[in-house]
Amino acid sequence: MKTIVAGVDIGGTNTVVGLVTKDGECVGQTSFSTQSHSSFNKFLEQLASEISKLIKSQSIDYSLSGVGVGVPNGCYNTGNIVDAVNLKWKGSLPLGSGLESYLKVPVIVTNDANAAALGEMLYGGAKGMRNFIVITLGTGLGSGIVVDGRLLLGSDGFAGELGHTAVKAYGRKCGCGKSGCLETYVSAPGLRRTAFKILADSNEPSALRNYSYNQISAKQIAHLAEQGDAISLEAFEYTGAILGMKLADVVAILSPEAIFLFGGLSNAGRLIFEPTKRHMEKNLLSVFRDKVQLLPSGLSGENAAIIGAAALIWQDLDNN
Amino acid sequence: MKTIVAGVDIGGTNTVVGLVTKDGECVGQTSFSTQSHSSFNKFLEQLASEISKLIKSQSIDYSLSGVGVGVPNGCYNTGNIVDAVNLKWKGSLPLGSGLESYLKVPVIVTNDANAAALGEMLYGGAKGMRNFIVITLGTGLGSGIVVDGRLLLGSDGFAGELGHTAVKAYGRKCGCGKSGCLETYVSAPGLRRTAFKILADSNEPSALRNYSYNQISAKQIAHLAEQGDAISLEAFEYTGAILGMKLADVVAILSPEAIFLFGGLSNAGRLIFEPTKRHMEKNLLSVFRDKVQLLPSGLSGENAAIIGAAALIWQDLDNN
């Protein structure tokens, strides 16, 4: 019987489950709506049942070695989800222990950015690297930090909250309750906020002036920027400047050999990479200049989150 | 024959050498002027000779196991001092390999803040802690970061340059060539700069108005603040606000269980601790609130730097 690991990516809308081999290949996948259940226990029950069904549906006979779960506000140390803003169930949710009691295999939980970082190290562009950072750019900004070959978890398992470091005192309101957090500037919604501020301040004609705030997406702003829309281009320049300055600070603290940009906004390619790299270099202490690579994720987009989550277990099996 | 380790603290003015036992006791000490020699090699020669003489002068027969050196811009990975702004010898100086060839024992070099952090872990207030940070507050601001029981060195050995992260774009000129670095606000000279800015903006009577910029020290500003001088008190409040905000960001990234303030400015006690703690808590992400201790160093001030430097070797011997 071949051993297999389940990788789970819990998002506010969908939960995706995949079966991942030791080589990082996703051999089967399914998904279901995350919040269709009234209680967290019912959700847990369905998650366990979906994993079991997925294994049974394969043509090969697999034995499940463990489940890795990436979820916003997932805590590595406790296995709990704590105060996740994008889930309707509040407080501390015992995801790890709950799933273990259903499936009788080890479950490791962490936030989605940490999972992405482990996936990058085992199967992506960070193979062989000992010190690197993965920045996830989506509806928020997450970060997974690897120090000396190991995930940086901190004293309570919550390290890596780069998205909630300060850009500006009394800056933009953040979902976390604070103001001026990095993710209010650098994320898909952050880009939109920036575009609308620039639009309001300038006289420049722009296709953006025909969209409502609720109509336009970061992807569309990227599309307009590619067509030469000046305000959209300026919004990317500003976003890259803020991210680049913050990454220069992060380099001064952690001295990584590479920083990977992962997810949604990173797909804008040169539009986000070029200004970010330029402003990072400009703000780096001289000892770090021209040393740190800024790279796109080496994981294929569609299954990246699942493969990263499964890597939590495969790395653990490797180390034992 | 009893084994002993030499701890060396190289400052811009004096170099202090001590012999430190495994229990962190300093049994002998000497010092000499750092920059009296025209060449770095002559300095190395004297350093080696001072260590040998110090061992011979002891009543007990000691065998030297190694030398740990704390020096600004000292690189753990290479053993070199790189572009130290407070030394007259420029470029990359081969301190580790040079000293090894004189003394024929292992030499470990790192910056003074990393040495302080190891000292704190082995002999000070961080005994038993796995994740903590030491902030050195003197003429600059240094930081030594311990992650999961090990010094965070980063890919090139230069991690921990918190003093050169950004407080303000286009802020105060820094010795590193950048502007707005944390250490231009939070350090002994930073406090003086702040006091003189507040003094210029306000009408408040203050004893500070009788001193020239070159006359007044951070220690004197602390003394005036203790006597109730309003501008001096406001300078500490501002310094603590800047440090507290930055520490909240550092906690979000690293999630330490404690942060220690070490050296010069930390001796101002409540004047610096109280506003720093208050502004740190105010800016923390909710998941980190009321969790992180802000503590004075547990090492006795006078020999702390030497004991920390020696800890580099003692920890290494312990791990082998």
Q: How would you concisely characterize the structure shown here?
A:
The structure is a homodimer of 320-residue chains. The first copy, chain A, has 2 domains: 2-110, Nucleotidyltransferase, domain 5; 125-296, ATPase, nucleotide binding domain (Nucleotidyltransferase, domain 5).
| CATH topology (fold) name of the largest domain in chain A | Nucleotidyltransferase, domain 5
Structural class of chain A: alpha/beta
Sketch the major β-sheet of chain A. 5 strands, mixed
Oligomer state of the chains in this structure: homodimer
Order of helices and strands of chain A: EEEHEEEHEHEEEHHHEHEH
Distance between the amino and carboxyl termini of chain A = 20 Å
Shape assignment of chain A? globular
Based on CA atoms alone, the radius of gyration of chain A comes out at 20 Å
Architecture (CATH level 2) name of the largest domain in chain A? 2-Layer Sandwich
Instruction: Tell me which protein chains meet in the greatest interface and how many residues each side has.
Output: A-B, 44 and 44 residues
Mean pLDDT level of chain A: 93
Q: What share of the residues of chain A does DSSP label as strand, in percent?
A: 15-25%
The order of strands across the largest sheet of chain A is 3-2-1-4-7
Q: Runs of chain A with pLDDT <50, length 5+?
A: none
Say how many strands of chain A there are: 12
Can you tell me the CATH class of the largest domain in chain A? Alpha Beta
Helix proportion of chain A: 25-40%
Number of helices of chain A: 8
Integer tally of domains of chain A: 2
